[in-house]
Design goal:
3 helices; elongated; about 30% strand
Amino acid sequence: MNKTKFIAELAERTGRPVTETHKFVEEFFALVTEVLAREEDVAFLGFGRFYIRKQSARLVRNPKTGTPVMLDERTTVRFRVGKYLFETVNRK
């Protein structure tokens, strides 16, 4: 499901106009992005937790040429699934 379909279904479920729902979803994403940029976790009980992870600089190889290249230190976002989401997805 892409973002447009997600917004349309959320609007239908909540009975709100699509434009209002679109604005809500955009603000939600903006807030999560800002909080993660401040290097704070975003946790939703039962759903999961978004958190920041630092990756140190390391030596990697160019797959085409095989030459070693130094990859700079960087920050990534990780997601740890919550118990309720995990159990729901894995129901048989």
